[in-house]
Amino acid sequence: MVLQSWINIENHLNEERVTTNISILNEKIRQYIRRNFSNDPKDFMRVPLMLITHPPPKIRFDDVIGIEEGRREIMDMLLMLNDFYALKKYKIKPPSGILLYGPPGCGKTLFAKAIAGEWGVPLIHVLPSDINSRWAGETESNIHHLFRFAKYISPCVLFIDEIDGIGGSRDGIQWRSERMDLSQLLTEMENIACHYPPVLVVGATNRLEDVDFALLRPGRFTKRIFVGLPNKNERVKLFKLYAKERPISNDVDFEYLSEITEGRSGAEIENLCNNAARNAWRRWRHRKKDGEITYRDFLDVINFRVKKQGVPIYR
Ligand SMILES: Nc1ncnc2c1ncn2[C@@H]1O[C@H](COP(=O)(O)OP(=O)(O)OP(=O)(O)O)[C@@H](O)[C@H]1O
Ligand SMILES: [Mg+2]
Asked: Looking at per-residue confidence, does 133 or 216 come out higher?
C-alpha cells in the first residue's frame, strides 16, 4: 500500500497545492453515482446516506472556543497534508485519522466542521445510523462505499460522528456480522492512510472506552484530541459569542455569569443565552418596549442555588 501511495504522490507532483475546484467536484459526485448505481430507485437505496457539505463549510477555528492545543496540532497536520514535496522528501506517511473525544456538547461536531472549513475541502458527515443496516453484509458494503466515495472526491474530510456506534469494542459484541463491520472499518481506515489526494478521517465520540482498541492504534486514529468542558475564560468567550448578535443591555457581567456556570458545556451556555433571549422577547411582546436582554434574564435562566459553603449546585 505504501508503494501505491508514493505512486499517487508522483502523479500529483506537478500540482503545488491541493485545490478543490467546485465545479469539478460537483461533476465528480454526479459521475460517481452514475457509474456505481443505476437509475433504479432500489439500487439508489444502496448509496449510503451521507451529508456532503460542499462547498466547504464556512466554519473556521475562530468560531470554536477552546481546544487551543488541538487546533495548533491540526493546523500543523493540514499544512503537512498540503505539502507534497516535504512529504516526499522526508518520506512522511501523511496523518489520516483524528479522534475527538470528550463530554457531550463541548464542540466536537463543530470542531470537525471547522477542520474541513479551515482546510477548504468538502465535508462528508455520517452517523452510524446512516450506514448501519439490519441486512447481513449491507453495513460492510455501506462502509466500503463510503470510503470509496471519499477517495473519489478527495481531498476531503470524512467525519464519522458518534463512531462508537460502528467502531465499538469487540468485547461486548455477540454477533458475527457486527465483528465483520468493525473489521471492514479497520481495513478501510488502513487503506485510506495511503491514499492521495488525502482523505482526513475524523471520528467523534463521548465514549472513548467503547471504541475498539484496534481503531486507536497508530495508522488509524493517530491523533486523539480531548474536547473538554470550557474553563472560566472560555465560558466568558462563549457568552460573548452567543450574545454578539443579540440586543444585550450594557450591565451584563459576563465574568460573573462565567463564574456561576462552572461545569457547563458550550451547548448549555448557548442554550442559556437562547433562554435569556426568550425571556426578553416575552417581555417585549407584552409591553412592546424594553427589547433588551438584561442581566436579570441571564440570572433567571441560570437557575442555581448556592449551598451554605457557597458552592453552586445546578439543577
Ligand atoms: N467550544 C465551543 N465553541 C463554540 N460553540 C460551542 C462550543 N461547544 C459547543 N458549542 C455550541 O454547542 C453546539 C453543540 O455542540 P456540538 O454538537 O459540537 O457538541 P458535541 O461535542 O458534538 O456533542 P455530542 O457529543 O453530544 O455530539 C454547537 O453547535 C455550538 O453552537
Ligand atoms: Mg456531536
From this structure: 216
